[in-house]
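User: Teach me something about this protein's shape.
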Amino acid sequence: MKAMILAAGLGKRMRPLTDACPKPLLPVAGRPLIVHHLHRLKQAGIQEVVINVSHLADQIMGALGDGSQFGLSLQFSREDAPLETGGGVRKALPLLGDTPFLLLNGDVWCEALPKQQVLQGNDLAHLMLVDNPAHHPEGDFNLANGRIQVSGQPKLTFSGLSIIHPALLAKQPLEAFALAPLLKDAMQQGRVSGEHFNGHWVDVGTPQRLKALDRQLNRQ
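Assistant: First, the predicted structure itself:
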């Protein structure tokens, strides 16, 4: 299975840290945030990783190279302007192939990955959900009997880690668009499975949460 890391965002919530450094390269516990993902992917047996880049792209590409330093093969999908989550994945599909792939938001930290399972039946996605953090108490989706639904209680938070079938996006135009509406449509069709992860997960979306994660990991 291949993997894709979303790393093309402007990092507006992380300013001023991201004015001169792209968010994926911000250090946490002695290594760039995106490198934590790469090490975890390697440990999980992933060999090929696609990374979309836009804001300060040359810095990311220069720091990571071809991936050999991590025991991986890296390819970059460069965007002249950020294409949002859906558009970025759609543009990268030729690099990802026609089988399901792991998709990871570059601005989260998680001690685990979604189960590398083959999607069941005609499913289009499998999402890892986590307990609702303090900054997102209302959650996103309901998980019942391994299936994810837009409605229903209680709701859990989408971790930003998932397995995606290319068919979810293959018919979309090559332009900027969000992934969430496509996922919600698939949920309404009963084509999205999920799992609840109870371990350590952080949405590293602000300088304060970055500092807190860095302190916590350095204490371990």
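Now, about its shape. The longest strand covers residues 155-164. The first helix runs from residue 33 to 43. If you'd like, I can walk through any region in more detail.
User: That's plenty for now, thanks!
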